[in-house]
Amino acid sequence: MVQVDEKNLAHTINQTSRKITNLLNDHLKEYGIYASQYQLLVNVSRYNNSTSKELAAKLNVNPAAISRTLKSIENQGLITRKQTSDRRVYQITVTDKGHNLLAKLSERDTNIFQKLFSPLTHKEAVALIGLLSKLI
Questions:
Q1: Which of 45, 57, 90, 105 has the CB geometry, 3.0–4.6 Å to 81, for a possible disulfide?
Q2: Which residues form the HTH marR-type domain (predicted)?
Q3: What is the pTM of this model?
């Protein structure tokens, strides 16, 4: 039987996260982006016209870190930043190039995640989502 303690639980969650990130990075390599960039692009699409501060709050990440990643995907032509009436604030949207990339990757992502989570039954996957959601 597996011993359950806080360190073991944190380690297992961390290792799972690393495995997912590594799988995504391998999958995304041919497109010239990393998992962190792709995940941010997905969320820019989800929260269209958000500011970097709003995105950082929704994603529970450091605004400085998100700013660097946004700059990177902007340089690749995947997003645009439009200045608002407050010249310090920009609304972020996905470009046509970004939408095309998201469309290409959507089906492939599904296959990767199906393979990754195939050891779980549907009921176990639902339970896992519920349990992990309590932590965030």
A1: 90
A2: 6-136
A3: 0.81
Directed axis angle between helix 6-28 and helix 96-116, to 10°? 130
Residue 98 belongs to a domain: yes
The residue range of the domain holding 43 is 37-135
**Counted domains in the chain:** 1
- pLDDT tens profile 16-60: 999 999 999 998 999 999 999 999 999 999 999 999 999 999 998
CATH number of the CATH domain containing 128: 1.10.10.10
DSSP-based three-state secondary structure for 118: coil
User: Quick one: how far is CA 134 from the chain centroid?
Assistant: 19
pLDDT digits (tens, 9 = 90+) for 48-71: 999 999 999 999 898 888 999 999
